[in-house]
Predict the 3D structure of the following.
Amino acid sequence: MDEDLHKLDRDDLIAEIKKLRGAIREHRDSTGHDLCWHQPEMWALLPEGVEPDIAVPPWPKFLRGCVRYRQSLDIQAADAEVHDHEFKE
C-alpha cells in the first residue's frame, strides 16, 4: 500500500511528512463545532485516492453518538475552555 514511499528521495519524504504533520495539526487544533466534521480533506492526503465507503447512522443513533462524544470530552479534556457559540455555516 505504501510502495510509493520507496520511490521518494529524502527531500520528497520530508515534504510528505510536513504535509501530513500539517494536516494532523490542523485536525488536532480544531475546536468548537469543527470537532464534529467528516474529514475527506485529511483522507485525500493518502495516495490511494479512493472514495471512502461510509455508512451514516440514522438520526437518533447519530445524535446519541454525538452526545457520547461530548461526554467523553468532559473526561478526556475536563479543563478545556467552553466554546459557547451556536454553529454557523
Q: What stands out?
A: The mean pLDDT is 92.
